Each structure stands twice: as C-alpha cells, then as structure tokens.
Amino acid sequence: MVDIIHRIGIKASPEKVYSALSTVDGVAGWWTRDTTGQSRAGGVITVRFLDHGAEKGRMDLEVTELDPGKEVRWHVKAGPQEWLGTAVTFTLSKDGDYTVLGFGHRNWREAVEFTAHCSMKWATFLLSLRELVET
C-alpha cells in the first residue's frame, strides 16, 4: 500500500483548524465550494468540482472519525478509481502558537502517476486550508 503524507504548521488553534476539517462549510472554504452532506460520524460529505457548470470530478467521503480538536478521518466511497477504499486522515497537535496538521491519503493500491498528481493537489489544498484559518 502507498500513502500520500504531508505536514503543515497553521497559526491557529486546533479547534479552529478542526472546524475547517469537520464541517461541510469548513471543507467548502478550503477545498471546493460545491460541498454538501452530513458532517457527523457515519455521514457522507460530497465534494464536486465543476467547470462552467459541468461536473469534472466528485468524491463521496464517509466520515469515520471525529475527535474534536484532534482528528478527522474519511473513507472514500466514490471518486476516481484509484481513490476507492482509501482513507483521508487529518491529525492535529498544538506546538506553541501553531497547530501541526498531519495529513494522510492512505492505502493506495499502488504508486502511479496519478498518486504524484494528487500529492501535489493535496499540498495546494492544505495551503488553502492554512490561508482560510489564518486570515
């Protein structure tokens, strides 16, 4: 199995970062505006990417864990073939004025070119998350 992992420091409280990860409105603020669903354990969050109204991509993410201020986990139920069955994890810890976010997109079946593409996209979205909660 292959994992994409990233680590980023965010100058905000773990609670503020957690809110951006654990709520539909929060995810819509840093990933894609077209985010719907239920942000509760067992709920499904759907993220859609549109191009001039046409759907370019969609992922259904089952919320598998919500530990306030500490962790958010999703299981990918629908999306690109390579994503099916993978897990997206966010762990939070405090370090002075910063929240350290450990990110993982885990359990890819194999490393392929799309893995590298997604790693770069995740890094970009994590920077968007940081900008959202810091400003």
Q: How would you describe this structure to a colleague?
A:
By secondary structure, the chain is of the alpha+beta class. Helices cover 28% and strands 46% of the residues. The protein has helices spanning 14-22, 24-30, 113-134, and strands at residues 2-10, 35-37, 44-51, 54-67, 71-78, 87-95, 98-108. Strands 1-7-6-5-4-3-2 form a 7-stranded antiparallel β-sheet. It starts with a strand and ends with a helix. The model has no long low-confidence stretch (mean pLDDT 96).
Task: Please state roughly what percent of the residues sit in beta strands, choosing from under 5%, 5-15%, 15-25%, 25-35%, 35-45% or over 45%.
Answer: over 45%
Overall 3D form: globular
Largest sheet: 7 strands, antiparallel
Helix content: 25-40%
Topology as a string of helices (H) and strands (E): EHHEEEEEEH
Strand line-up of the largest beta sheet: 1-7-6-5-4-3-2
Rg, rounded, reads: 14 Å
Query: Can you give the mean pLDDT?
Result: 96
Structural class: alpha+beta
Assembly status = single chain
Count of DSSP H/I helices: 3
First and last CA, distance: 37 Å
- Number of E-state strands: 7
Contiguous low-pLDDT stretches (5 residues minimum) are: none
